[in-house]
Amino acid sequence: MKHLISLNDLSIEEFEEILKLSEKLKRQLKEGIQHHLLKGKTLGMIFTKSSTRTRVSFEVGMYQLGGYPLFLSSNDIQLGRGESIYDTAQVLSRFIDGIMIRTFKQSDVEDLAKYGNIPVINGLTDLMHPCQILADLFTVYEHKGKLKGLKMAYIGDGNNVANSLLHGCAKAGMDIAVAAPKGYECDETIIAEAMETAKVTGSKILLTTDPEEAISNADAVYTDTWVSMGQESEKESKIKVFTPYQVNGQLFSKAKEDAVFLHCLPAYRGYEVTEDVIDGPQSVIFDEAENRMHVQKAVMALVMGS
Ligand code: CP
Ligand code: NVA
User: Is residue 189 scored above 90 in pLDDT?
Assistant: First the structure.
């Protein structure tokens, strides 16, 4: 593994290796066993969008690996004033050992990797959120003891999270049903990539506009905000379109009785999900948030370690 830009780039073995190492590092941390796999290494973390979980989990994770995280807000670095990705990649490659970037365009992440000579980790773009989905699948694995053969239902916007979830479930051999309104479906290229992977792993993919069809028989139910970062001007129109896609108690009751509820957070209670579901006994949202750190430590160790 050289980078983590899209889950589609991972082989099934690499995908499984990340989850295995995540489990080990999480256990070692709880047992107080140090694991300085990145001793003395530096991770630059470029953010052109806000973050709570991604920033804190990468930063603390890097410390736990014996390394040093460097927070680079686009407000402060020259990238935000128009310096090219090419020059930024070249310069950063002379100072640091890896880059995590959260930004708008997927192509900027790809270009950083192409023009620099250090590993690049995608911390969210408009198109994908691979680290999030690794944490989500690891969380489902912890709660259910397996992934293969289970069913994930994603209800809501066919956004970055939904796109990476398609990639991830297909890699894991998990069935996935996505219910999104017309005009807000997942990315076509990503759907095609997930379908290719599914042929190998045996996962079944269903794309529908009907939340009840998607949630039926689901082992895990996932939703995300209706208004992603950068879409603030569409808020009113999106609320109208997405109201029938709210994950409330009535809809959630159509999943399997022991289904877990997932949300990448930040959540907007009363919009994409109601309190009874997100704060109810089947919600695993804070395990998911915690697991961001464990899986990202595994990813950093695999791409930046020697
Ligand atoms: N889930 C997630 O990526 O959260 P942040 O935006 O807080 O990083
Ligand atoms: N879809 C959301 C995810 C936030 C972690 C966004 O892009 O804003």
Answer: yes
